[in-house]
Amino acid sequence: MNIPLKKTVLKVHPLFPALFLFSFFTGKQSVLFTLLALLLHESGHLLVLRLFHLQPSQISLTPFGGLIELPENGKNAFPAAFFTAAAGPLFSLLGFILSPYLFKWQILSFSSAFSFMHANLLLLLFNLLPVLPLDGGRMLQAILSRFFRRKPVSNALLILGNVIALSLIGLSVYGAVQGQYQFAPAFAGLYVLYGCGMENRCSAYHYYTNLISRRSRPLAHPLPVQQLAVSAKTPLENMLPRLKANHYHQFSVLHDDGMALLGSLNEAEYCALLMENSFLTFADALHHINKQRSK
């Protein structure tokens, strides 16, 4: 379910409101306070984005967590990215600290306060894992990107995320073999795998952001050209991880034997076709471009 909010699209997984209704009709307070803790966590991210005058392009709410696509912010990228990521765990920490007082002030019952405290603690510890797209990974990415190129840093964190996700799933499987059925690690691992996949697809968003910002400002120096030779069968989106910030890209499309040159695409043509259908192969792209050029 997509809900447009000015320049932001709010994507709500159908299970998210379904779990609210399930909690309401069955009285399962643990489910309700887990969702409330999740909303508190995401509110921290959104508040800091507002402080930096940034507008997220998309917010996704799922039963397992939220994902916010952060905008690029030029020279202020480090403080915006770091503090936005840190705000989620900070708000979860505040929720954890506040929970006993909600019971003390008779706002919540003991069981409700305990459920809220437990949910905030789990969110805090889980999101501090140093992997993308979790907040710990976002903070580490922001720090390391000041000293190394962003793309290798992101790729390393995504690999680490997949390793940790598979380890968590393996932990649940091992426990089940031993007769101890603990599904929480498996659910956490599946969410990390899902988030890593989403993060990888978001590389297109970062590329478009860089391209738009580059075209909207005067260039003080000539851009270096990145020449890329690619097989005709390669999908357009597969080349996104190889694109470099502040470079102009030219694509030489080769026959399957890697010898014959079938044609070439410039960056504008590649970008237009990628937005139209990212699953197009370079052979399809050449066919489209040749038809346009012949008109």
What does this structure look like?
By secondary structure, this protein is an alpha/beta fold. The protein has 3 domains: 128 residues, no CATH class; 71 residues, no CATH class; 83 residues, CBS domain Like (Alpha-Beta Complex), CATH 3.90.1280. Helices cover 59% and strands 13% of the residues. The strands form 2 sheets. It has a 4-stranded mixed β-sheet with strand order 1-2-3-4. α3 runs antiparallel to α4, α3 runs antiparallel to α5 and α6 packs antiparallel against α7. The longest helix is centred in the first third of the chain and has 28 residues. It is elongated and about 75 Å long. It starts with a strand and ends with a helix. About 2% of the residues have low confidence.
List the helices and strands and how they pair.
Blueprint (H helix, E strand, L loop, with lengths): L1 E4 L2 E5 L2 H12 L2 H23 L6 E5 L2 E5 L7 H28 L5 H18 L7 H10 L5 H28 L6 H18 L1 H13 L9 E7 L16 E7 L6 E6 H10 L5 H13 L1
Parallel strand pairs: 2-3, 5-6
Antiparallel strand pairs: 1-2, 3-4, 6-7
Helix pairs in contact: 1-2, 2-3, 2-4, 3-4, 3-5, 6-7
Provide the residue-averaged pLDDT: 76
Question: What class, by secondary structure content?
Answer: alpha/beta
Strand order of the largest sheet: 1-2-3-4
* Count of separate structural domains: 3
Which descriptor suits the 3D outline? elongated
User: How far is it from the N-terminal to the C-terminal residue, by CA?
Assistant: 40 Å
In the predicted model, the low-confidence regions spanning at least 5 consecutive residues are: 72-76
Question: Beta-strand percentage?
Answer: 5-15%
The proportion of residues forming helix, as a percent range, comes to 55-70%
> Main β-sheet, in a few words?
4 strands, mixed
The DSSP helix count reads 10
Give the total of beta strands: 7
- SSE sequence, one letter per element: EEHHEEHHHHHHEEEHH
Structural Rg: 23 Å
